[in-house]
Design a protein that fits this description.
Number of domains: 2
CATH superfamily of the largest domain: NAD(P)-binding Rossmann-like Domain
Strand order of the largest sheet: 8-7-6-9-10-11-12
Largest sheet: 7 strands, parallel
Length: 340
């Protein structure tokens, strides 16, 4: 029996980012792989022209949506392995119900690998921003100051704090795992998290009002869904404790933008943002100039470790699928509506 035929849609730049050379070589040994050898991503029409006869499809950042035209030509397709995070955009209209579910197609997402980098960055922000490290660095370098009198040297830092996690997503759960050595109390707001699962994770479920008013550090790891859109407005922002730290490495639309800016201007608490609205922020946007706001340019997901785990987990998913083993990272279609 021949090797399974796989159509590989990403361009070489994507391959170099997420696959170690030895991992990609193993991929090509295990499967009969047809590569996208061009320097640009295919269109949906071009993908439809190529998909016939392939049992597996590898997608990635920049891969076009799998339209009805693609599915009409995908006569042997059994698995879509997405070597990136969010998969929803790949399935426009009602293609999930018209083609994916009836055919029993397995959809794999490497979002768990991306979560590793984002979670590491989140913990780093919890430590660095709460301890005012940037302010110390800046004062020492640009002002000749040693212990600047306006920069707090003491306070409630990460250890022993109460941390609020909004969204028990792949990232949120990895953050919870990384927090275990820090002797923190963890509150979680996630309507889809059961009491049993909260107990298994070692966290406490909380409503949003309690979390926002109780926690020393509040970290957002929510998907963008109708339920999270503009969920946090002026009333909830006003509940945040004086001196707390708010971190968002997820999506920006959870905040009412006018209320968020108004509360940020008060300077009552620290804010660390890896995502903004709009993105990038215009050079004259007031958030750029507020001394209590620390902005990074949507780079929390970057890092060799997590990126290479994307390639490794994508290959593992394909190997497991064609060996008729359970696929770790397969998307639960019953939870499709809650996905980002």
């Amino acid at each position: 029996m021949g090797r399974p035929k796989i159509l590989y849609a990403p361009v070489s730049a994507h391959t170099e980012r997420v696959f170690r050379p030895e991992t990609f070589a193993r991929f090509q040994r295990r499967f009969e792989v047809t590569l996208n050898e061009g320097e640009r991503n295919w269109t949906s029409e071009e993908l439809a022209e190529r998909i016939a006869g392939f049992e597996g499809l590898v997608t990635g950042w920049g891969t076009p949506p799998l339209t009805e035209e693609v599915w009409e030509k995908a006569d042997r397709l059994r698995i879509v392995a997405h070597s990136a995070g969010s998969v929803k955009y790949l399935f426009p209209g009602d293609t999930l119900n018209e083609y994916v579910r009836p055919r029993g197609i397995v959809i794999f997402s490497a979002n768990a690998a991306i979560a590793l980098n984002v979670a590491e960055a989140t913990i780093g922000l919890m430590i660095a921003v709460s301890r005012h490290w940037y302010n110390f660095w800046h004062a020492v370098r640009t002002q000749g100051a040693w212990r600047h009198p306006t920069i707090p040297r003491n306070g409630q830092f990460l250890r022993g704090s109460t941390v609020g996690i909004i969204g028990a997503s792949k990232v949120g759960r990895e953050v919870i795992r990384l927090l275990r050595p820090f002797d923190v109390r963890i509150l979680v707001y996630d309507p889809y998290l059961s009491e049993w699962e909260a107990g298994r994770l070692g966290v406490e479920k909380a409503d949003l009002e309690t979390l926002m008013s109780t926690c020393d550090i509040i970290s957002f790891h929510h998907p963008t869904t109708p339920e999270t859109d503009r969920l946090v407005g002026a009333d909830l922002l006003a509940k945040i404790k004086e001196g707390a730290l708010l971190i968002n490495t997820a999506r920006p639309r959870i905040f009412d933008p006018e209320a968020f800016l108004a509360e940020a201007r008060k300077g009552r608490f620290l804010i660390a943002l890896d995502v903004t609205e709009p993105e990038p922020l215009p050079p004259d946007h007031p958030l750029r100039r507020l001394p209590n706001v620390y902005i990074t340019p949507h780079c929390a997901g970057a890092g060799f470790y997590g990126y290479h785990r994307i390639g490794e987990s994508t290959l593992q998913a394909l190997e497991d699928f064609f060996a008729e083993r359970p696929v770790e990272g397969a998307v639960n279609l019953d939870l499709w509506d809650t996905l980002a």
